[in-house]
Amino acid sequence: MNDNNILAVVLAGGRSKRFGEDKNLAKLGNITLLEHVLKKVTQKFKKTLIISNQNLNVKKLNSITIVPDCIQGNLGPLVGVLTAMKWVKKNNEKYQWVATFPCDTPFFDTSIIDEYKNKINLNESSLYFVKSNEKRHNIFGLWSIKLIDTLEKDLVDNNYRKVEKWADKIGVKIINIKNDKFDSFFNINTKTDLEEANKLLKENKND
Known about the structure:
This protein is of the alpha/beta class. It has a single domain (6-203), classed as Spore Coat Polysaccharide Biosynthesis Protein SpsA, Chain A (Alpha-Beta Complex), CATH 3.90.550. The chain contains six helices and nine strands; from the N terminus they run E-E-E-H-E-E-H-E-H-E-E-H-H-E-H. Helix 2 (77-90) crosses helix 4. The longest helix is centred in the middle third of the chain and has 14 residues, at 77-90. The radius of gyration is 16 Å and the shape is globular.
């Protein structure tokens, strides 16, 4: 895939309140949740940005860069998106889009990345979210860099925090993904979710 227009961004800056500890480091099978996501993303993109305020134990690769939120205070995923956009501008990168991936959804369908490329070529919107099993996944998004000024103003001046509300204000188009066996966009918020994920991993390890 030619990813010159898209920067992959893994949002790993959450406080993991419901999980009780940093879920980036929680093991699913033999590797961490974050490593599951990075394994998929780095196979599809030449460059991956991880947004995190934590000290992450991630294998050092030239293709991975870790940066903290540009606005401190754990203000949510929108700040992570803005941080990625600002990183692109600051480093004079040529990316026109950022594709965001949560750190806690290890089974996600990588076919969405090909869908992202198709959507860019169609040029129908500046923002796309994934939807599966009638649920919209607001962190699986494709964001145009052109949104940077509006996003920063709404975060700083207008106190927007919820991704869903901001996206509905801006206007967002949906990429529908069909799941035949189980929802591959199942995300892990609690220890019970992690137990369920381990069961899913065992049941689908040969797929």
